[in-house]
Amino acid sequence: MTKHKAETVNLVIIGSGPAGYTAAIYASRANLFPVLYEGFFSGPAGGQLMTTTDVENFPGFPEGIMGPKLMDQFRNQAARFGTKIISDDVVSVDFSVYPYHVVGKNHEHYAKSVIIATGANAKRLEIPGANEGEFWQRGVTACAVCDGAMPIFRGKDLYVIGGGDSAVEEATYLTKFASKVFIVHRRDELRASKIMAERALSHPKVEILWDSVVTKVDGGHVVEHVVIKNLKTGVETKKPAGGLFFAIGHTPNTAFLKGQVDLHDNGYIKVRDGTRTNLKLVYACGDAMDHVYRQAITAAGTGCMAALDAERDLAAEGLD
């Protein structure tokens, strides 16, 4: 497909969501005239919040706000200040040339600076009833901290799939709201660190279902039951449930970088001195570099940081 003629710009932001859009707001207000590739074929522009219903923990919205509506407001604010938003996916970046060459499916640019805000995707299992168009975001989710306090989960039996530190953290957090939390783990011992495993084993509201998997999610408008299969006996049991939480990790969207930017062993981008990567005038923000907090508000914060870092560095280099 023919691409538009490549132009050189001060800043290209790769990715949208809270991090990318916030970076765009700050960069455009600083007259950097950023270009933002918000994605298209690879997933909904706006990131993970586009598949989220009520967002109740983002400051400024005491009654909560729907995830897509919140991202629309972020996007509109970025556009208001002059961000050029392109509905396209970046397929590659060549950091061996300068200005850096950013290539999308249908567009390309040369960039004096680049902010990577491509986010991460929660790992999910293909379980009947747990998918898009079924009970995903209607009782099935992948973030206890984001969603656990919602009314539909309160006072219910909740199920967490996983066996590592994340699963124990999610389960422990959910005990604040649930009548009981069940960790469903396909093995006979947790992969979590010893101290985290002890926390789960000793908690009065946590029960671990060993050698087990969830084979089905069922209900009416929201989740009402899960089917648990014991892998040793083959017996399936239908249990009442108010929710199912995946806690099996996240995959950062960094493969397109093809090893040009330093990554941690888990694939997340390494940053130093704020949001700076190992490459000059290349920055990372949001869930592409944050494997600890992974919240909309922290992503927005690092998006702000990346734009300010880029603005200052471009000025210092006389490139703005």
From TrEMBL:
Transmembrane segments: none annotated. Binds 1 FAD per subunit. Coiled coil: none annotated. It catalyses: [thioredoxin]-dithiol + NADP(+) = [thioredoxin]-disulfide + NADPH + H(+). It holds the Pfam family Pyr_redox_2. InterPro entries: FAD/NAD-bd_sf, FAD/NAD-binding_dom, Ferredoxin-NADP_redctase_2, Pyr_nucl-diS_OxRdtase_2_AS, Thioredox_Rdtase. Keywords: Disulfide bond, FAD, Flavoprotein, NADP, Oxidoreductase, Redox-active center. One of its GO terms (cellular component) is cytoplasm. Belongs to the class-II pyridine nucleotide-disulfide oxidoreductase family. Homodimer. This is Thioredoxin reductase. It comes from Candidatus Criblamydia sequanensis CRIB-18. The gene is trxB.
